[in-house]
């Protein structure tokens, strides 16, 4: 029936398809590679319908967002992005969240932020990542460099969530992901699920280091997408594992 309606033009695609009633999370994904649907499946299996979240390097309230679908389904959390040009959109489209315009790094201070353009998710605190990207894609360039205040993940949690990690942490900071996770204090009560960018810049892949790091911090790899790794904490991973 749906296929026939689409052929007749009764349903406007893309964006006009409302989803089928049997689609538990609707007919849309906002994440780059469908990570939001994977994460919602994990939390559904854990019995958590509205997981709270911390989205570091959130970029945009809707575009290529790992948490937009969660927000639309009633979840609430904290969005953090270093780019001052983007925070206004969060305040408009995600008013129920805490929206912070600050960088996140392995330690508190300030860092140079390299702008590929005013709105790009490719902007980064790492000069080498920015330079590798524009070398690989010469149609882009580093347009600006600004000093941006930087805090740690635990600073955000302590100040804005009473020291308690939300259920889900999404991390996409163009090359600083490993250092941030290595410096974070998760115990007790870290996030149940982490989605971390593994491929950034000019397709630099940090998967091997992340897969080595996070099991030592108590997390078990659940899924690899095109650009991201999804981990669950040991207790959640045990509940998610299939019977042998």
Strand and helix map with partners:
Blueprint (H helix, E strand, L loop, with lengths): L1 H7 L26 H11 L7 E4 L11 H5 L4 E5 L5 H7 L4 E4 L1 E2 L4 E7 L11 H10 L7 E8 L1 H8 L7 E4 L5 H7 L9 E5 L1 E2 L3 E2 L1 H10 L2 E6 L3 E6 H7 L4
Parallel strand pairs: 1-2, 1-7, 2-3, 4-6, 7-8
Antiparallel strand pairs: 5-6, 8-12, 9-10, 11-12
What are the defining features of this structure?
23% strand, 30% helix, 3-stranded mixed β-sheet, alpha/beta
Query: Low-confidence segments, ≥5 residues, pLDDT <50?
Result: 1-13
Structural class: alpha/beta
CATH topology: Rossmann fold
Main sheet: which strands, in order across? 3-2-1-7-8-12-11
CATH homologous superfamily classification: Vaccinia Virus protein VP39
Number of discrete helical segments = 9
Main sheet properties: 7 strands, mixed
- Assembly state (oligomeric): single chain
Number of domains: 1
Overall residue-averaged pLDDT value = 90
Secondary-structure element sequence?
Answer: HHEHEHEEEHEHEHEEEHEEH
The gyration radius over C-alpha positions equals 18 Å
Number of strands: 12
Can you describe what's shown?
The protein is of the alpha/beta class and about 240 residues long. The chain has one domain (about 25-105, about 150-240): Vaccinia Virus protein VP39 (Rossmann fold), CATH 3.40.50. Helices cover about 30% and strands about 25% of the residues. The chain has nine helices and twelve strands. The strands form three sheets. It has a seven-stranded mixed beta sheet with strand order 3-2-1-7-8-12-11, sandwiched between helices. It is globular. The protein starts with a helix and ends with a helix.
